[in-house]
Every structure is written in C-alpha cells, then in structure tokens.
Amino acid sequence: MKTAANGGSRWGLWLGFALIAVLLVLLMIQVDRQWQRMAEMTRIMQEQADDVRRTRALLRELDQALRSGGPQPGLAALGDGQIAAGGRRGPDAFERARRAAAQPDHASGDWLMLAFGTGLRTITPLVSSDAYAAEVQSYVIESLITRDPDTLEWRGLVAEDWTISEDGLTITFDLRRDVSFSDGVPLTARDIAFTFEFIMNEAIAAPRSRAYLAKIERVTALDDHRVEFVFAEPYFNSLQLAGSMDILAEHFYRRFLDEPRRFNESRGLLLGSGPYRLADPERWTPDQGRVELERNPRYWGPVAGSFDRIVWRVIENDSARLTTFRNGDIDVYGARPREYRSLLDDAALMARAHNFEYMSPTAGYNYIAWNQNRGGAPTRFADARVRLAMTHLTDVARVIDEIMLGQAEPAVSPFNPRSPQHDPALDPIPYDLERARALLAEAGYVERNRVLVGPDGKPFEFELTFFQDNEDTRRMVLFLRDLYARAGIVMRPRPTEWSVMLENLRNKDFDAITLGWTSGVEIDIFQMFHSTQTMEGGDNFIHYQNPELDRLIDAARREVDEAKRMQLWQAAERVMVADQPYTFLFRRQTLAFIDHRLHNLEVTPLGLNLMSVPVEIYVPAALQRRR
Predict the structure, then answer these.
(1) Rounded to 5 degrees, what angle do the CA atoms 335, 130, 418 make?
(2) Of 123, 242, 449, 575, which is most buried by a Cβ count within 10 Å?
(3) pLDDT, tens digit, for every residue of 415-435?
(4) What's the mean pLDDT in 325-333?
C-alpha cells in the first residue's frame, strides 16, 4: 500500500509538471502572438507617423507655391495640348476602375485566390524571365503610362502628361506629385532616371531589358516631377518603350549596384508604387509555395484595388488544381480543351462559375525552337532545309484538331494573323512527308534500315524538352514522336521541371524545346530573332543568325511611318517563314472558369480584364467569404 501510494504521488507529481509545462508553452505562444501584434501595430504607427510628416511637407510646399504664385502640386503647368488639373485630355488610366467602383453592388474586401501551375524561381524584377513573375510584379510596380483596354490608346498613370519632340527623339514626361512607393517614400523623376541607370549597368542580370532600352541614349531628371528620355535614333515604339519601363525605387534598389551578385541571385526583392505590396519586400522565397500580396494602404491612385489580398498558390498538378477550384479555395481555373468540354456539362461546377472562351487579339503563340549551336559546335538544325523539313513533318492541323479540339488556330509566324504586321499572302506550312524527305535528302540525309542518317554518318536523333506538368504538351510531343519516326527520325521526349527548363534556356543546353511567347498589339521581334541577342542571357537562345532578317528588323524599328514599317515587318515575316528558326505551332483560345463571386468581368480588345491593373473586378459584400 505504501509503494502504491508513493507511485501515485510520483505520477501526480509528473502530471503536475506536465500540466505546468503545457501551460508554459501556451503562455509562450500567447506572448509570442502578442509580440507579433505589437510589432505589427508599431510598424503601422511608424508608417502613419511617416505619412503625417510627408503630408505636412506637402502642405508646406503647397503653401509656398500659393504664396509665390507658382504651379501647385498635382497640377501640370499649362501649355499646348494640356489642361490644368487633369493632365491629358480624355479618360485617364482609372476610368474603367472608376466605373466599376460606381456599380451599386461594388464593395472592397475579400481575397482574390489564384494558382500557378509551376513554382516561381524568383519574383525580383529584371532577374525574373517568366510570365508568372511578371503577373505578380504588375500589381506592385508601376510605369509612367499604360494602354487603355478599350481604345488601345496610351493613358497616363504615374505620368499625367507628356510631350514628344518634332524629330521624335525626345519624350518629356510630367509626373503626378502625389505618388509614393508602398513604404511612403515619394516617387520622383530621379527614380525613373535611376531605373534606366540600374538596367543599363552590365553587372545587373538584365540582358533582355538592356537589349530594348539600348535605343535610349539617356534619361535625365529635369526636376523632381519632370523626366526626359532622349533616343539615339528614331524608334517606332519609343513612347511605349519609355512609358512602359517599370519604375524601381532608388532608395531600395541602389545598394545593389555595389552588390550586383546579391541582386542577381535574389528571389524576392520587390517594392513599388502599385496598389499591392509584399508585406516584407525583401524576404520572399520560393519554398513558401505561394505569393501573397496585401493591399497597399498608401496607394496614391484615385481608385485602389478592391481586394484585401491577392494570393497565388503553387499547384502543379492539373487535377489537384481543378479539385481546389471545385472546393472554392481558388477563384480561377484555366481548363485544357478536352476537360473544358466535359466541365460545361458539370451542373455543380457551372452553378458557381462563369465560363469564358475567346481568342485574345494579343494571344501569344506556341512553338518548337531548334537549337543551331550546342557546346560551341553547329547542330543539324543549323541547316535551314532541316528546320523546314521538321515543320513539314509537324502536323499542326491534327494537333489542333485532336489535342486542342479545335480550340486554337495555326501560327504562321510571331505576328498575329489579325495584325497588319502579318502578310495575308502567307499561309501555315502544311504537313507534307514527301516534301520533308526531299528537303532532308537535299541536305545529305539518307535512309538506312528505316533510320535517317546524316552527312556525318550518325542517325538523326534528338531530344525535345517540354514542361512535364502540361498534359496537352505531353500528348502533343508523343504524337509528334510517331510522326517524326515515319521519316526515320528518332525524337526522344524529355519531360522537364520548369526551373530546369529556365536553366536550360539560360545555358542554351538543349536540342529542341517547345514553349510559348506572350504577345502584344505590335510586337518587336528583336529580342528573340536578332543575331545580337545570342549573347549570354539573351532570348535568342537558339543561336539563330540571318543578316537579312537583322537588316529588316533594324529598319522596321527605326521606321516611324506606320505603312512603311508594316511593309518591313511583312518582309521580315517572309524571311522567318522561309527560314523556320522555330516551327510555329498555334495560338490557343483562353478557356477559363471563374468563381461567380467575381463581378465586372469583361472581355476587352486586350483580353479578359481579370488581371487588369488598375483593378476593375470585385466581390459584392454579400458574397465575400475571406478575411
């Protein structure tokens, strides 16, 4: 009995210690939460104090301006083509957002939940090279002007007005005086001049941006609110080039001029003046598995984004992404053609989703790129006859019909068939096995035991790299493998992770690769096809060189007369169709399901306004469910 009593006492003692330990842990958790809340409140109070100081400074500036009779902050100096309080005539960049905000059911709040089909390597501007990172950045970093989705004309954003010299070589922008970055520091002309300086620094890993901005001779801050771009020579897209440059905050990014390697290897250095911001603009990492932006409480625009947060989850599997959409955990699902047809008959899904099916006028294109030099030696694809033969062996019509189920159109070239850049006399290159065989024979290839052998005596074999998590691309590659085999060509599919694909492109380490480019109203193909862009980090990652195409690209970029420029672009298109640096595959339709909670969705000449910035869509208060 005494032993049992002692044992019971010990057990009671241990239970008491355990209870105290649990209480201590809970107390520590509660204290930690309180410290986090206090830190957050301190940060907010500091931001508010900084804002008060800046507001006082602005009021002092206004008072001084009124006393001296000078121009008032926020008002442009009067001149030809200007009006006092509104900058340029006509609607500004916020007109559509204002109309949305005026809707009777408009409300702020809720979270916009999206998904990426692959993980992001980095969201640092300039260093990032994919459309996913650009999507995130579009909510955080702003430019001087932006294109109107209805008229396709340019509207002022950070700039309220601009003038272009008679020779077209000088563009001067007048900036709004009420713009600040998300940390409260005012945005001035010096930030724009710094951005140009930063990009053009060879130590910064921004070769594609430097390639375009090389047309600009200098960028000068004339004062805090006027910036001047001077071009070295005429350029047809000069206004877009200058006005669309993302504005980097000098006070945030300048330190990396002394530490360029740290910037080039960074993953999440992202700060701007846009309607959303990273809670911590320096510490996002890919292993977080998501990107989360919060509403910028200092946003200067007359209409801020309606959502409290915008979140992108990384869900690489198509089926998992669809299940997540069904469960209401993401708001948008981009469907593949085959499943799109079946989902239209899914009553439960259609009861809670809008569906959109359209071909964007600015739709990008898919392609197979043939690497012409690998490891310092020419490949078999350096011969234009071989590339043309491969296009004749690629039955795009069947790919569109059997894999895309008709939800795409053939791509003739990089130029949209509805664009004046396209020569309407050019048709897609058809599937033609006999023509392909004739071209290959002309290039010195012979068939031995049903295997094609090249002039070097080696079988015609190559790997086709593709993104492993895209089911339609996988099916297409397997289909093409069988087609190429009919001509005696051995193609080995190489499914690859997205991050590895980007590394392969950077190192130009592949035989052939299938990918897609985004597009625009009028595109400049210099970046992808000019021979100067074969340098390290350039987007001519196939080592393609054609002096005649270089000449036509250079001439078109210098030509400001639209009719003459279109003739040059069409001549360049004819060279590309004959030379086939890529096999141009198709432009696909957008097939999307979007949660019915999202209102004010509209297809514009630039496509669906789902991702438009300024933000136009919202969730009515009665339908909001995320806080």
Answers:
(1) 65
(2) 242
(3) 999 899 999 999 999 999 999
(4) 97
